[in-house]
């Protein structure tokens, strides 16, 4: 029989008879109907005859192209941030004990404005090397062509003819595009009962990513963790190399997306947290699963490479940060990461610290410690907090357009608990080092409360600072107390003048007077 006969038989098969799935580690044929299977098997049998006669094997499908995407270059606030005069950052040590032994401040005017670690963004060690700005939101890159209109069904090539058709039937309620052959019946049932979760996860996956997804689910069901390789561009970036942006390859993007989704649904199905994905609104599911939120624009990591949900999740478990509800969990994470008057943890990146080269979440949490450094200041810190909370299905997003603080600074928002970390630098802010961890995040209702809008109007930056000023007044930090108790040493004129310069725009006259009393109450007899 000739090759032509094989293709003649195959061409006569129903158009929707078969579909080929390809990925770097998986190839299979999926038959959609009994007639198509029979017809296609006939074609394959013909091919075997040809191969036997020729003494060769049939040609294999071409391997999936795993070439990486090219670096993207776009403009946002980071390049502007890098031009700000940040030398003042080095004036303030992370360890607050250094304040007490410091020489009198010779930069009085700068001190009167705001503590150095909360006022300015950091400046890279090598200003002549341009910082690659964040990539604007762009659609995620599909791994393979769109799925045809005809839905896939599980591979039934190894099922007997009598049961093959029954095996393609899915549980009631299952959306058509969820019927991937690699999902087990238990996972098919899970998604059938949660159509909104299916749409937000499986409904977003390419065939190649779906293969990874099923493999990760099997690994999670067996071991409680998943194994995923660090993106090549990240692994190859060894300091002192300067690479603040990491662009995964196309195949790595598929694996990362699948890993995030698999971890989230496994967490949900295993009841590892008290909140349930089926109770989430579409908006909150999007905040957890939208590809453009997992990576900048869906294609690039900036400063923090959060590729492994297991790394972040295991840290949450080890530190006992998963609480009975989402808000308590958010506060626990803030408390774990913050620097206080008595304990130094994360500090703002300075020129004397490592560059803002992107590093993995594992290295962020475990390697660069004593102290841990938020290399790009607020822009790194918000990503770190968001990644930890995302690993326990607490959805949030980063914004930097001045919606809740100042333009070009990084903010983390969790609408599901109505809280916002207005500025990533709040984690180590000198103004908040004595305040309870819950005070580092602001209730969204604060921004519309008449008691506060009468002072700031609708100016979000003013309202964010007002919240911090009220917290500092109620819980005086050592940074302000030392200056109020010995203004001559610190060259600040008086406590009243110092606090007026720092808080005057955000507090009423009565509140400012109360702040002076509160700060002076901490002075030694």
**Beta-strand segment tally:** 12
Q: End-to-end distance, in Å?
A: 104 Å
What is the percent of helical residues? 40-55%
Residue-averaged pLDDT: 75
Overall morphology: elongated
What does the radius of gyration come to?
Answer: 28 Å
Characterize the biggest β-sheet: 4 strands, antiparallel
- Uncertain runs with pLDDT below 50, 5 residues or more? 1-179
Strand content: 5-15%
User: Structural class from helices and strands?
Assistant: alpha+beta
Q: Total helix count?
A: 24
Oligomeric state, counting identical vs distinct chains = single chain
Protein architecture, described:
The strands form 5 sheets. Strands 9-10-11-12 form a 4-stranded antiparallel β-sheet. It has a two-stranded antiparallel sheet with strand order 1-2. It is an alpha+beta fold. The protein contains 24 helices and 12 strands. It is elongated, with a radius of gyration of 28 Å. A hairpin with a 4-residue loop joins strand 10 (407-414) and strand 11 (419-421). Helix 20 (460-474) packs parallel to helix 24 (509-520).
Topology at a glance:
Blueprint: H1 3-12, E1 18-23, E2 26-31, H2 34-54, H3 77-81, H4 97-101, H5 108-113, H6 116-119, H7 161-167, H8 185-192, H9 195-200, H10 207-223, H11 232-235, E3 245-246, H12 250-269, H13 282-289, H14 291-294, E4 301-302, E5 304-305, H15 309-318, H16 326-337, E6 346-348, E7 359-360, H17 361-367, E8 372-374, H18 378-390, E9 397-401, E10 407-414, E11 419-421, E12 442-443, H19 450-456, H20 460-474, H21 478-485, H22 487-490, H23 495-503, H24 509-520
Helix pairs in contact: 1-2, 10-12, 15-18, 19-20, 20-24, 21-23, 23-24
């Amino acid at each position: 029989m000739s090759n032509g006969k094989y293709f003649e038989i195959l061409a006569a098969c129903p158009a929707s008879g078969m579909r080929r799935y390809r990925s770097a580690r998986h190839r299979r044929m999926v038959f959609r109907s009994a007639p198509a299977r029979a017809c296609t098997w006939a074609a394959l049998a013909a091919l075997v005859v040809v191969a036997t006669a020729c003494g060769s094997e049939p040609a294999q499908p071409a391997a999936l192209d795993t070439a990486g995407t090219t670096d993207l270059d776009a403009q946002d606030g980071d390049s502007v941030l890098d031009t700000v005069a940040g030398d003042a950052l080095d004036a303030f040590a992370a360890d607050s004990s250094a304040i007490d032994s410091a020489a009198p401040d010779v930069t009085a005017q700068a001190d009167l404005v705001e503590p150095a670690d909360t006022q300015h963004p950091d400046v890279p060690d090598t200003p002549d090397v341009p910082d690659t700005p964040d990539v604007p939101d762009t659609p995620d890159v599909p791994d393979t062509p769109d799925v045809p209109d005809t839905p896939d069904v599980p591979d039934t090539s190894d099922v007997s003819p009598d049961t093959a058709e029954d095996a393609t039937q899915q549980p009631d309620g299952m959306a058509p595009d969820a019927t991937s052959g690699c999902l087990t019946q238990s996972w098919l049932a899970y998604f059938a009962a949660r159509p909104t979760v299916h749409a937000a996860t499986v409904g977003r996956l390419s065939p190649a990513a779906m293969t990874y997804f099923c493999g990760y689910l099997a690994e999670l069901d067996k071991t409680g963790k998943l194994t995923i390789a660090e993106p090549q561009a990240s692994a190859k970036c060894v300091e002192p190399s300067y690479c603040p942006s990491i662009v995964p390859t196309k195949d790595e993007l598929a694996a990362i997306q699948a890993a995030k989704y698999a971890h989230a649904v496994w967490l949900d199905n295993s009841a590892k947290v008290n909140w349930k994905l089926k109770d989430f609104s579409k908006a909150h599911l999007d905040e957890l699963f939208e590809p453009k939120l997992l990576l900048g624009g869906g294609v690039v990591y900036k400063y923090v490479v959060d590729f492994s949900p297991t790394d972040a999740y295991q840290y949450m478990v080890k530190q006992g940060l998963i609480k009975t509800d989402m808000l308590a969990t958010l506060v626990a994470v803030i408390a774990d990461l913050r620097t206080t008057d008595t304990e130094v943890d994360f500090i703002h990146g300075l020129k004397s610290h490592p560059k803002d080269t992107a590093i993995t979440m594992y290295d962020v949490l475990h390697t660069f410690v004593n102290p841990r450094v938020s290399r790009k200041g607020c822009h790194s810190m918000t990503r770190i907090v968001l990644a930890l909370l995302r690993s326990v299905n607490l959805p949030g997003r980063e914004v930097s357009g001045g919606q809740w603080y100042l333009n070009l600074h990084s903010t983390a928002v969790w609408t599901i608990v109505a809280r916002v970390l207005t500025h990533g630098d709040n984690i180590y802010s000198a103004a908040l080092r004595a305040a309870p961890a819950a005070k580092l995040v602001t209730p969204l209702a604060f921004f519309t409360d008449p008691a506060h809008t009468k002072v700031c109007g609708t100016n979000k930056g003013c309202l964010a600072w007002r919240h911090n000023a009220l917290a500092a007044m109620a819980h005086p930090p050592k940074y302000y107390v030392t200056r109020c108790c010995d203004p001559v040493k610190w060259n600040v004129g008086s406590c009243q003048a110092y606090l007026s310069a720092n808080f005057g725009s955000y507090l009423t006259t009565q509140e400012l007077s109360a702040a002076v009393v509160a700060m002076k109450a901490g002075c030694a007899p």
